[in-house]
Design goal:
mainly alpha, globular
Length: 196
């Protein structure tokens, strides 16, 4: 078992984190700027979302080299990737269905709930990780990251809410809560990993 993270592991994590962030930002700009249609927009966003796979693999490789990659964490990573992809697919299917079919009644509710299936899977994955992880130190680090994500989300939401109420900033839809939470918990975990 190795101690500490090697410089090459840290570099790989940093490079893939930047690549994932840039891919997601670029995907958002491309989708917003160009009329690619539903399928084109979905393809661009799935490519961006798919960049999480090499990032997670770099994190796992580093943890394995350090000797602290647990089976519970590997399962969690797979569940989160699946949840993210389901969220992205659900979001695009709901948006496309709403714009194309102008639904009402039950179908409107189904489309509104559809993206939440991926979010539910991600929340379930977080809960399962905390129950499946046998290492108490790892559980502590995970809990701390979740608290940082929750705290950041509460502060950002409250701050934005008041600024929006005072018409200082534009309205932001409530569905941005999950991406903000995921980003802040991810940043907290990356900082924790890089410090280790």
């Amino acid at each position: 078992m190795m101690t500490g993270r090697s410089a090459s592991d840290r570099r790989a994590i940093f490079i893939w984190a930047i690549a994932f962030s840039l891919a997601m930002a670029r995907s958002g700009v491309v989708v917003a700027r160009f009329d690619l249609g539903w399928i084109g927009s979905l393809a661009v966003m799935l490519l961006g979302t798919g960049m999480v796979v090499p990032f997670v693999l770099a994190l796992e490789r580093s943890a394995r080299n350090k000797g602290d990659l647990s089976p519970a964490m590997q399962r969690y990573n797979r569940r989160m990737i699946l949840g993210s992809l389901i969220y992205t697919l659900g979001m695009f299917a709901a948006t496309f269905g709403y714009k194309s079919w102008h639904p009402t009644g039950v179908l409107l509710w189904i489309l509104g709930i559809l993206p939440s299936i991926g979010v539910l899977l991600m929340v379930w994955a977080m809960g399962r990780l905390l129950t499946e992880e046998t290492d108490e130190y790892q559980r502590l680090k995970l809990t701390q990251s979740a608290l940082v994500g929750t705290g950041a989300l509460l502060v950002i939401g409250t701050l934005w809410g008041f600024l929006e109420q005072f018409r200082a900033v534009p309205h932001v839809p409530a569905w941005v809560v999950m991406p903000i939470f995921a980003i802040t918990i991810g940043v907290a975990r990356c900082i924790s990993w890089l410090r280790a």
